[in-house]
Design a protein that fits this description.
heterodimer, A: mainly alpha, MetI-like fold, 14 helices, B: mainly alpha, globular
């Protein structure tokens, strides 16, 4: 018996079996449950009623469209603010660069709820009104590091000789940037966009806290439905969100797992 | 000119990023209930934090957060390292399949993972509490461990392990003497990543924590903020966490910089 066990262990590919079972039980089956609940009604019978409800109810639909809008604005602002910062840091050759990168990542280590409440305090302190403005500021503030870091990593990895080649061949600095540096940093940009857009579309809590419950995002709608026991409807709304995210990752690149790995998520 | 411009741009962004945190730190030194009111310098909030009994629930929440983080990070490091070794030795077909499923919890938004696990636990009729939170945390942390251990396997010399077996080592001995030392760095970074993800998580915890009074730091803050205000003691706590992390990261940075200049 013990010998059998040892030869089983000896085949190292068998070592993936516990995790494979774990993944089936805690990832595949739960996701399947979302699909199951979405397509059934309260009595467990197959039905489209949840999706019909989503189409008919202007409230959920409006929240959904509003959330996509907020996510697009936030992602755009993070890209516009973050790219120059990543670019500047990737050009600096001093020892302080590493420190700078750490300083940009550090705020992520403070619990995001505390960061969000601190933003609220900042707005109170400057006696600015809480509303859409504070919502977008809070979102950009929370997710900017997630845009800077992947772009910085991919800029750092670009082959310097390609840039020098472009310069030797007579490209102006502008052309070097547009034709060489920018295209080479696309993996970082897509990774950054994914890492900002997806969390923003699905957050809840941040929006409530930043606007004193005045603005609701789609994530809050999901959470409220699940909390109030409307599991089927909540599951259907989750599927809608998953669909949107699937489309975004397809638009961004064929291999989003590859960009996540190479864009320096880790 | 250009240099000044780019420096001041970075400076501007940093001010933007740090202004809210600075405000929390500054107002941790005053007693006012509401953040933003200055009622004179005082260390009372810090004293409250360390006096047992004054803020019993906050202390409990902090303790739970650390325990859950440590257990989840340890379990996912073990599971993830084993999985990475297995995945690396699989045929391309099944390897691709596991790796795809492995990225699902990373790519899925928190709330989807949270709802899916919530549905799993309620369909099975499992009562939610410590166990479900830890299982949920292992679910979203392990993929990161796998992704940080796999590159170490790709870098190492494959023949070493085979050589050890040929020379008569048992698989377990070869694991201890050959594989683990090579994978150590990946495991450590995986563990740190898992721990930070776990203590920072809010959404997945909220959906799997049940309603029997178990609180972690983030669910405590959420419940607190919804009640209208922030428990004043959270200010010194955030300040301490923030400064600790800052000092740790600076020290690590300093050490690696020194080693580089020496080596």
């Amino acid at each position: 018996m013990q010998k059998k066990f040892l030869t089983f262990l000896g085949r190292r590919r068998n070592w993936s079996i516990p995790y494979a079972l774990f993944l089936v039980f805690f990832v595949v089956i739960p996701l399947g449950l979302i699909v199951f609940y979405a397509f059934t009604n309260n009595e467990g019978q197959f039905s489209f009623s949840n999706f019909r409800k989503f189409w008919m109810q202007p409230e959920a639909m409006n929240t959904f469209i509003f959330s996509v809008g907020i996510a697009l604005i936030t992602t755009f602002l993070c890209l516009v603010l973050g790219y120059p910062a990543a670019f500047i840091m990737s050009r600096m050759e001093t020892r302080s660069t590493k420190l700078l990168v750490i300083l940009f990542i550090l705020p992520m280590w403070v619990n995001f709820l505390i960061r969000t409440l601190a933003t609220v305090a900042l707005f109170d302190f400057l006696s600015l009104p809480l509303g859409e403005g504070s919502l977008i500021f809070g979102m950009v503030y929370n997710f900017l590091p997630f845009m800077i870091y992947p772009i910085y990593n991919s800029l750092l990895k670009t082959d310097r000789s390609l840039i020098e080649a472009a310069q030797d061949l007579g490209a102006t600095p502008r052309q070097v940037f547009l034709r060489t540096i920018l295209p080479l940093s696309v993996p970082g940009i897509t990774s950054g966009i994914m890492m900002v857009f997806m969390p923003v579309i699905s957050t809840f809590a941040i929006a409530e806290l930043l606007t004193i419950n005045n603005i609701k995002l789609f994530g809050t709608t999901l959470q409220e439905n699940i909390y109030n026991g409307m599991w089927n409807y909540g599951a259907a709304l989750s599927l809608v969100m998953l669909l949107l995210i699937g489309i975004t990752s397809l638009l961004n690149s064929e291999g989003s797992s590859k960009t996540a790995e190479e864009g320096g998520l880790i | 000119m250009n240099k000044i411009l780019s420096r001041s741009y970075l400076g501007f962004l940093l001010v933007l990023l740090y202004a809210p945190i600075l405000i929390v730190i500054i107002f941790s030194f005053t007693e006012a209930k509401v953040l933003g009111n200055w009622t004179g310098f005082s260390l009372k909030l810090y004293a409250n934090l360390f006096q047992s009994g004054v803020h019993h629930t906050l202390g409990n929440a902090l303790w739970n957060t650390l325990i859950i983080g440590l257990v989840a990070a340890t379990a996912s490091t073990l599971l993830g390292t084993m999985a990475a070794i297995g995945i690396y030795n699989l045929q391309p077909g099944p390897r691709k399949a596991i790796q795809t499923v492995n990225t699902l919890p990373i790519l899925n938004p928190d709330i989807i993972t949270a709802i899916s696990l919530f549905l799993l636990f309620v369909s099975l009729g499992i009562s939610q509490g410590y166990t479900t939170v830890i299982l949920a945390h292992i679910t979203f942390c392990t993929p990161y461990v796998v992704l940080s251990v796999l590159p170490c396997l790709k870098r190492m010399n494959e023949n070493l392990y085979e050589a050890a077996l040929d020379l008569g080592a048992t698989p377990l001995f070869a694991l201890r003497k050959i594989l683990l030392p090579e994978l150590r760095l990946g495991m450590i970074s995986g563990f740190i990543l898992a721990f930070t993800l776990s203590i920072d998580d809010f959404v997945i915890t909220l959906f799997t924590i049940g309603n029997e009074g178990l609180e972690t730091l983030s669910t405590f803050i959420y419940a607190d903020a919804r009640k209208g205000g922030l428990t004043p003691e959270l200010r010194p706590l955030s300040a301490i966490i923030f400064i600790t992390v800052l000092v740790l990261l600076l020290l690590i940075n300093q050490r690696t910089a020194n080693r580089k200049s020496v080596g």
